[in-house]
């Protein structure tokens, strides 16, 4: 770089699908060239630390393969033949196709499909305003959070918890079901501060010896889908050994006597047979938690991506109520703070235009929807037109063979607004280039901490890419559904209105301060004034299908999955995809450190660090099957087969396989990715996708 280049620093927020929502300092040269990103040192949760993949973001921003021109498909879908278009012509064509589809099948035939490629509240969620204005099919967002959020809220009544910065004041931090080193590095920042300053113990509970487990003082490596059994055995020991806080239980919980009676038979020996942990391991963990009042349970998403994930999350939450850890600074249980913000997004989403008679389709079942499954379509018209922003379902959605078959339909018109030619974009009819987060205005709220962070436009995009908001507003005008004034407002106008309507100050304040700290006071955060139920009691006996939840399915969908079979108290809910003679292994598709879902898989540095698609195989399993490190193997089940390389490694239970990272399908030996093997059946009671809950067979194969 020229030593005379003029430098300035801008402030933003990481937009990606991660609980941390890191506050960023961005170095910009000569007015418009991003050179470096780093964590904002003044924001007390980010504390100057961000993950390596976002620190290298300039590599993504200036990637030579970035989409810069609107394009229309020339040949057959997926062949990569494109013709450049002008922006107005492209939007005209999309509008014409949507109008034609609606005239033939009704407005519900168009499905705006989106998710978390950006977590910005304007650029992500404005798609709903177009959806509601045009009466297009609704989307039930089931692919990520439902099992976890439901499990939390059915205990506490609110998606909130102790200040995550309190991990640094804990004497024991339990990191359960999240590989924080790889997926939310700030958890490790505060946990390791507690270890250095207070001698705190770090406990990691996971299904393999990953990078986070390798930093633990105590690690429990258990079989996938058995976390509820572990939690029950821990609580059994707490009651048995006089480590339960009976005064707290009597004051703050609904049925401690019923829970204790239920747990009488759920001892460590019982749990050992289910989890694969030694009974002694469970006893030691229970004693540590029971004898350490300042125990902070940091609960992740990973262990909820099982068919029993909601029950598992609720069971893990219950431990803090048995010990009374909520009473203490640095104690309690935390998963997500989404319930603290109270942001009024009605203008952005067009909530006032929503018609409850319009059907909702399950996001996770896009393969079934696009291949005409009557149940998935809710017995309505076929989907013949798609608008896709912020997601890559041909790679990330379950039941990949169905998804691919659906996208290949010649009677399906697909419009994708994207930054790169993803595998979804490659199946589209029209692809338009999208801006990246430093090139447009937005606002973000964190799940993993307590901040609202502004993400202003810091640099101009290259000629070509446009923000999501501009595309949606342009389509609304062409479709004749832009009567709502919000379709004619800028992102900053929408942000300012949102903040004012929510009593969260205003845009000018946020521009000056960069973020807002929204953490409630200690008593509220720790539920010392009672949990968020009319009687103030934590629910050991949840009303599984009758209680509110942050993302409860609409009435037209009702409760989902085998909800009638859910247990009365915390338990091991035997509904996972168990092994059998035909399918002797359990497969989990865990995150990779250098990818974030399918994002960053296009950057050379991330790909180099990850190497190639592999499956981790336990050495005894490998020996029994004659598999050596680096061999090509095939995984299969009733949904399909995938070929990739084996990596023989210690650190997981026999009968368990791990495939890290969401590699593009084309990176696999046969061009089909790991989600060929994942199912789309619903997690009870409010839906969700069980990405880590797959039974498979494994065999060595030739080249």
TrEMBL record:
Protein name (record): Molybdopterin oxidoreductase family protein
InterPro entries: Asp_de-COase-like_dom_sf (IPR009010), MoPterin_dinucl-bd_dom (IPR006657), Mopterin_OxRdtase (IPR006656), Mopterin_OxRdtase_4Fe-4S_dom (IPR006963), Mopterin_OxRdtase_prok_CS (IPR006655), Prok_Mopterin_Oxidored (IPR050612), YoaE_C (IPR037920)
Cofactor(s) the protein needs: Mo-bis(molybdopterin guanine dinucleotide)
Keywords, sorted A to Z: Iron, Iron-sulfur, Metal-binding, Molybdenum, Oxidoreductase
Domain 4Fe-4S Mo/W bis-MGD-type positions: 7-65
GO molecular-function terms, A-Z: iron-sulfur cluster binding; metal ion binding; molybdopterin cofactor binding; oxidoreductase activity
Residues making up the signal peptide according to the UniProt record: none
Domain of life: Bacteria
Family statement drawn from the similarity comment of this UniProt entry: Belongs to the prokaryotic molybdopterin-containing oxidoreductase family.
Upper classification of the organism: Bacteria, Pseudomonadati, Pseudomonadota, Alphaproteobacteria, Hyphomicrobiales
UniProt keyword GTP-binding, yes or no: no
């Amino acid at each position: 770089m020229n030593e005379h280049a003029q430098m300035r620093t801008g402030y933003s927020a990481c937009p990606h699908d991660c609980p941390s929502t890191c506050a960023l300092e961005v170095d910009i040269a000569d007015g418009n060239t991003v050179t470096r990103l780093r964590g904002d040192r003044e924001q007390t949760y980010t504390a100057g630390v961000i993950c390596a993949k976002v620190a290298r973001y300039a590599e993504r921003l200036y990637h030579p393969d970035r989409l810069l021109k609107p394009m229309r498909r020339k040949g057959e879908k997926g062949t990569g033949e494109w013709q450049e278009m002008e922006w107005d012509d492209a939007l005209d064509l999309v509008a014409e196709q949507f109008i034609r589809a609606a005239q033939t099948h009704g407005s519900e035939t168009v499905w705006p499909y989106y998710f978390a490629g950006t977590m910005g509240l304007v650029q992500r969620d404005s798609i709903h305003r177009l959806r509601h204005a045009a009466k297009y099919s609704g989307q039930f967002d089931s692919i990520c959070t439902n099992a976890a959020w439901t499990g939390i809220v059915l205990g506490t009544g609110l998606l909130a918890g102790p200040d995550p910065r309190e991990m640094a004041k804990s004497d024991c931090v339990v990191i359960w079901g999240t590989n924080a080193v790889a997926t939310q590095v700030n958890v490790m920042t505060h946990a390791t501060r507690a270890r250095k300053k207070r001698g705190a113990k770090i406990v990691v509970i996971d299904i393999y010896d990953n990078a986070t487990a390798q930093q633990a003082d105590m690690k429990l490596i258990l079989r996938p889908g058995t976390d509820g059994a572990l939690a029950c055995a821990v609580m059994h020991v707490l009651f048995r050994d006089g480590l339960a806080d009976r005064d707290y239980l009597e004051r703050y919980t609904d049925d401690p006597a019923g829970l204790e009676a239920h747990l009488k038979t759920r001892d460590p020996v019982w749990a050992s047979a289910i989890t694969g942990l030694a009974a002694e391991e469970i006893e030691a963990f229970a004693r540590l938690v029971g004898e350490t009042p300042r125990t902070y349970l940091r609960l992740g998403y990973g262990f909820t991506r099982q068919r029993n994930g909601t029950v598992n999350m609720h069971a893990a939450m219950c431990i803090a109520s048995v010990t009374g850890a909520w009473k203490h600074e640095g104690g309690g249980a935390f998963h997500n703070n989404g319930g603290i913000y109270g942001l009024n997004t009605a203008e952005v989403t067009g909530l006032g235009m929503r018609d409850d008679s319009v059907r909702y389709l399950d996001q996770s079942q896009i393969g079934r929807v696009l291949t005409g499954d009557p149940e998935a379509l809710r017995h309505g018209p076929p989907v013949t037109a798609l608008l896709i922003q912020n997601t890559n379902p041909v790679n990330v959605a379950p039941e990949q063979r169905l998804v691919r078959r659906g996208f290949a339909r010649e009677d399906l018109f697909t419009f994708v607004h994207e930054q790169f030619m993803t595998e979804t974009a490659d199946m589209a009819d029209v692809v338009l280039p999208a801006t990246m987060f430093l090139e447009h205005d937005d606002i973000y709220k964190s799940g993993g901490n307590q901040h609202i962070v502004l993400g202003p436009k810091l640099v101009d995009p290259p000629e070509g890419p446009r923000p999501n908001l501009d595309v949606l507003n342009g389509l609304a005008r062409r479709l004749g559904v832009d009567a709502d004034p919000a379709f004619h407002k800028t992102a900053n106008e929408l942000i300012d209105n949102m903040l004012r309507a929510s009593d969260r100050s205003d845009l000018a304040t946020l521009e000056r301060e960069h973020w807002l700290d929204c953490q409630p006071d200690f008593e509220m955060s720790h539920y010392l004034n009672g949990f968020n139920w009319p009687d103030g009691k934590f629910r050991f006996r949840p009303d599984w299908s009758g209680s509110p939840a942050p993302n409860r399915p609409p009435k037209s969908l009702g409760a989902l999955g085998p909800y009638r079979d859910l247990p009365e108290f915390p338990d091991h809910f035997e509904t996972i995809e168990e092994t059998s003679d035909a399918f002797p292994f359990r497969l989990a598709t865990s995150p990779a450190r250098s990818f974030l879902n399918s994002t960053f898989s296009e950057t050379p540095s991330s790909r180099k660090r990850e190497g190639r698609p592999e499956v981790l195989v336990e050495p005894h399993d490998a020996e029994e099957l004659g598999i050596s490190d680096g061999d090509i193997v095939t995984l299969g089940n009733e949904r399909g087969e995938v070929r990739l390389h084996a990596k023989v490694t210690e650190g997981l239970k026999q009968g368990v396989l791990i495939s890290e990272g969401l590699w593009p399908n084309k990176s696999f030996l046969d061009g089909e990715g790991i989600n060929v093997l994942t199912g789309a059946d619903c997690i009870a009671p409010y839906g969700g996708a069980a990405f880590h809950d797959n039974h498979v067979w494994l065999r060595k194969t030739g080249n």
